[in-house]
Model the fold of this input.
Amino acid sequence: MINPIKTVRTRFAPSPTGFVHIGSLRTALFSFLYARKNHGAHILRIEDTDQNRLVEGAAENLVKVMREMGIEFDEGYYLADDGSLKERGNFGPYLQSKRLDLYQKHATELVEKGSAYYCFCSQERLDELRKEQTALKKPAMYDRHCKNLSEDEIKLKLIEIKGQKKNPVVRFAIPQEGQTTIHDLIYGDITYENKNLDDQVILKSDGFPTYHLAVVVDDHYMQISHVIRGEEWIPSTPKHLLIYKALGWEPTQFAHLPLILNPDKSKLSKRQGDVAVEDFLKHGYLKEGLLNFVAFLGWNPKTDQELFSLTDLIEQFDFSKVNKAGAVFDDNKLDWFNSQYIKKLTPTDLANLLKPYWQQSGISFQNFSDEYLATVAKLEQERLKKLSEIGERTAYFFKAPDYDAKLLIWKKSDAGDAKQKLSELANLLSTLTDDKFSNSNLETEIKKFIAEKKYDNGSVLWPLRTALTGQEKSPGPFEVCATLALGLGKKEVLKRLETAVSKLTVDV
RNA sequence: GGCGCUAUCGUCUAGUGGCUAGGACAGGUGGUUCUCAUCCACCAAACCGGGGUUCGAUCCCCCGUAGCGCUACCA
Done:
């Protein structure tokens, strides 16, 4: 039944209706992983059969996001250097609106075979029917009114509707007998009674196919081997199977992925937080973190390994490791994954990634050396959960901070004491030559000073650190001091200490 | 209402016909520490319920229950 020699060809087939949903990202990832793992092809097909929901630029955006995330496609659409969408592959076009003839041809074929029929029912009648059925607590299904039309009636209706410059829809005629069972690679066998399946519209009155016809036709002609999609498609899969059968085609394999859930366990949606991949990227999540996190939603390696590169994922991915229950999207875990990947970055790479966020926060970092930026980045590296947090935290590295004089006072001390310590510190630091302003040397000197004077660490280090940063929380005073001297000079360090002293004189 | 899927700590999950039911995130406590973060140690935290099958069930079966999905000329 299953031909193991057949080449693996998977596809990701989104509708260009807006942003890229995090669920789409996972589907795309899994279909990519499976294709690569099996040395097969990964295809990008765009399903634009609903003309009412099209969003301009959505397809371009989608391709761009996929590329940014490192999910590759061997066929279908890609972004050319000039930013336009180009197509490649031998099974095109890969845009459904360019394949209308093909769908119409097969819809007609199905009608001729008696596997489908024209339906002339008005929207009003359909609405009415549904209303009645729900009122009677009956299943809401099409009543096959038009299936029972005589040949003469059909001819008449056809002429009539053409006169109104309209088209009938085509419905698939579900066999009334028997069962259809799907062999899902993740969920196993699921059997449906045919009589419970609705006669789905497969060709709309605007000449476009519905999803149900389009997937079957395209997956067949594009020689797709495995359809990987969300669990919400399970109920329509038997209909697809029946269409394959009516057309005399061999169906693809199916692997349905468990849903990704909101914290309240409903299907992940906007309005309960971010679900757009673009937004996560914009907020400073690294693609490695996002990918790793998303991969663990419904899949796990069955070992204790947590951190996975794309290569690791390709190696270890398998449908047998995908579970069936939906997975709640937990942003704590996402943050953790992200911080892990931030820690792996070299300070220089981190600084480069940080530049747009400094820009966003209105920090003029452009006049500073890359070396300095890297040093600053390194100081925040272990504190960052996402890149967008960098702004306010590092502003003091670029210009003198503004703060309340009270901040300078250590919890176990008072203003007079703080002022005194700062003055002494200023004296000490002014005696140090520039080459003595290294992190380690500063630590040695200041600790020596504290020890000689028998001071508390806190009574000295707290005022020092806050005078330099203007922040309650920050990296340690020695590294801040050394970094500041590197970027803004020893002069600036001493100036900040003076400012602090005068603040304590005037304000407290 | 109909059809279907699912069910282990708050969350992601591992696991087995007999284990102190394991790990990670989050939470808590302690250590390091001027602060925050990191790091380290520790703590708390789960097998949906009821029947079977069995010497023994979290695991196998049945029935409930709950949650979710689908039920469009949307995908």
Notes: Residues 21 and 276 of chain A are 5 Å apart (CA to CA). The first helix of chain A runs from residue 22 to 37.
